[in-house]
Structure formats: structure tokens, C-alpha cells
Write a structure and sequence with these properties.
alpha+beta
Length: about 100
């Protein structure tokens, strides 16, 4: 059961990085040339979730409206995955509580 908590925690860290990156990118939409951030997750060697890495590159803005839509979709997607990961944490907590009640 602790594996589920480790996996959910790593997913929440990755989601936090994605949210920070899209917030940064959205805030700089009107800047002609700015650093665009992206969060990449690489799998832990032991199979327990992902390790988030942030990378940035300087880009010239072509169309702010299409980028705004892209960042909005990324933020909504991150919100939904965060909710699912929070449900994993709640369910694991409930299961551990039930186990402790049984063991008494």
C-alpha cells in the first residue's frame, strides 16, 4: 500500500511542475521572446512513479491565442490528474485505516 502512496506523491510532484510551467508560460504569452518551460517525467528505476524535470528554451511567439488554448488544456488536464491522484491517496489512507481496525 505504501507503493501506491509513493507513486501518487511522485505524480503530484509532477503535476505541480506542470502547473508551474503552464502558469509561467501563460503569464509570458504577450512577451515577444521568452523562456518556455516544460516539465518532463522520467520513470524511477525502481518503478515507483516518476521524477519530474523542468526544462526551458527561448522561443519567439508566433500566435498567442493558440498557445493560450494549449496552456489552458494542459492546466485542465493537470487538474484532473491531480484529482485522480488525490483519490489514490484517500483510498490508500482508508485501506490502511481499515487494516489497522482489523488488526486492532
Amino acid at each position: 500500500m505504501q507503493i501506491a502512496l509513493h507513486t501518487a506523491a511522485s505524480g503530484l510532484r509532477h503535476a505541480d511542475g506542470r502547473q508551474r510551467a503552464t502558469a509561467h508560460n501563460t503569464a509570458n504569452l504577450t512577451t515577444p521572446e521568452s523562456v518556455v518551460l516544460r516539465t518532463i517525467g522520467s520513470e524511477h528505476a525502481d518503478g515507483r512513479g516518476v521524477e519530474p524535470h523542468m526544462e526551458g528554451r527561448v522561443e519567439r511567439r508566433r500566435g498567442a491565442s493558440s498557445a493560450a488554448v494549449e496552456y489552458s488544456v494542459a492546466q485542465i488536464s493537470t487538474l484532473h490528474s491531480t484529482g485522480a491522484l488525490a483519490n489514490v491517496v484517500r483510498t490508500t489512507d482508508d485501506m490502511l485505516g481499515s487494516l489497522l481496525d482489523i488488526l486492532g
